[in-house]
Amino acid sequence: MHNVVIVGSGCAGNTAAVYAARANLKPLVVSGYDAGGQLSITSEVENFPGFPEGINGPHLVENIRKQAERFGAEYVHGAVEEADLSARPFRLKIEGEWKEARTVIIATGASARWLGLPNEQRLIGHGVSSCATCDGFFYRGKKIMVTGGGDSAMEEANFLTRFGSEVALVHRRDSFRASKIMIDRAKANPKIKFLLNTVVEDIYDVKQATVTGVKLRNVATGEVWEQDVDGFFVAIGHIPNTKPFRGQIDTDEDGYIVSHGGARTNIPGVFHAGDVQDRIYRQAITAAGAGCMAAIEVERLLEAEGH
Ligand code: NAP
Fold first, then answer.
1. Which residues line the pocket of ligand 1, CB cutoff 6 A?
2. Nearest residue (CA) to ligand 1, atom 14
3. What is the pLDDT along the chain (307 residues), one digit of tens a residue?
4. Full-prediction pTM beyond 0.85?
5. CA-CA distance, 307 to 305, in Å (whole number)?
6. With b meaning 16 or more CB within 10 Å and e meaning fewer, what string describes 227-245?
7. Which residues are tagged catalytic?
8. Which fold has domain 114-234?
9. Whose CA is nearest to atom 19 of ligand 1?
10. Whole-angstrom Cα distance, residue 129 to residue 123?
11. Residue ranges of the domains in the chain?
C-alpha cells in the first residue's frame, strides 16, 4: 500500500515528489512514457527563477527528479492504464500490475497538439515550438510563423510581435475559432500578416538542424509556395492526459480536470497538479507550485487520518 502515487514526472509530478518524499511519505512516481513532460522537449528555460543564466529544460526536470529521489521517492517507468477511484484504497494499473494507494496526485500534464508533419517532430527545440512564452525570446529580429486559429494562436502571435521582425499567422480556414476581442487585437497589430485558407505541408531544414522555412499550400487556390521562417510556433490546442481517469474525475468539455479548490478534485484523496488542470498559465514554475500544493494537501490528509 502506497501513501501516495504521483502520476506524471514533469515539473508538477517531480515537485510533488520532492515535497511528499521530504514529508517521509515514500511516494511512488509513475514516470509516464514521456518522462519529464513538456520540459523534456524544451531547450533553454530562461524564466524559471533561480537560474540567472537559464537552464536546459531536460536538465531542470531531471534535477528535480534527482532531488526527489534523494529524499526517497521511487520512480517506475510506464503509465497508468486503468484506475479504480471508486473507493479507498485507490487502485491503479501500471504496466499490467495493480497497485494500491491511500492518495493519488494526477500530474499527467497536457500534451501540445502537433500538425503531425515528420520534420516537425525532428525540429522541436530547434526552431519548432509550442510555447511562445518559453521560446519567443530566442527570435528577436527574426521571422516568426504561428499556426492555429484559436485564442492561443492569436495570443501567441501578438506576444511574438515583441520579438520578431514579422509574424505570419497561418490558419487552415478563412474564419477563426478565436474570440472577437483576440482577433481584433491581432488584426490591429501591424506586425501580424494573415495567411488564411493555408496549410503547412513541410518544415525545413532537418539537415541543418534548425528551422529555415516552410512549404505552404492555399487550400482554396491550390497554390503551393515556400517561405523563409526562423521560428515556427504550433498553437493548435492541447490535449490533457486524463484518459485513464475519465468518468471518475470531473473534467470539463475538453478533458481538463475541474478543480474543487486548492489541489482537490471531486474525489477526496485524489489531487491534481499542473497542466492537467491548468489551461491558462501552463508554465514550469506554476506546475511546480501546483505540485507543491498537491503534496501538502496529501500530507495534511494522511496526517488527519493518522497515517
Ligand atoms: P482551440 O480553441 O481548440 O483552437 C485550435 C485551433 O487550431 C483551431 O483554430 C483549429 O482550426 C486549429 N487546428 C486544430 N488542429 C489543427 C490541425 N491539425 N491543423 C491546422 N490547424 C489545426 O485551442 P486554443 O487556441 O489552444 O484554445 C484552447 C482554449 O483555451 C479555448 O477555450 C480558448 O478560448 C482558451 N484560451 C484563452 C485564452 C485567453 O482568453 N487569453 C488564451 C489561450 C487559450 P479549426 O478552427 O479549423 O478547427
1. 113, 115, 148-153, 155, 172-173, 177, 236-237, 279
2. 236
3. 999 999 999 999 999 999 999 999 999 999 998 889 888 877 778 889 999 999 998 999 999 999 999 999 999 999 999 999 999 999 999 999 999 999 999 999 998 899 999 899 999 999 999 989 889 999 999 999 999 999 989 999 999 999 999 999 999 999 999 999 999 999 999 999 999 999 999 999 999 999 999 999 999 999 999 999 999 999 999 999 999 999 999 999 999 999 999 999 999 999 999 999 998 898 999 999 999 999 999 999 999 999 9
4. no
5. 6
6. eebbbbbbbbbbebbbebb
7. 131, 134-135
8. FAD/NAD(P)-binding domain (3.50.50)
9. 115
10. 8
11. 2-111+238-304, 114-234
Here the cell at position 156 is 501567441
The atom number, within ligand 1, closest to the CA of 148 reads 7
Answer whether 2-111+238-304 and 114-234 agree in fold: yes
CA atoms of 150 and 217, how far apart (whole Å):
20
Task: Determine the CATH number of domain 2-111+238-304.
Answer: 3.50.50.60
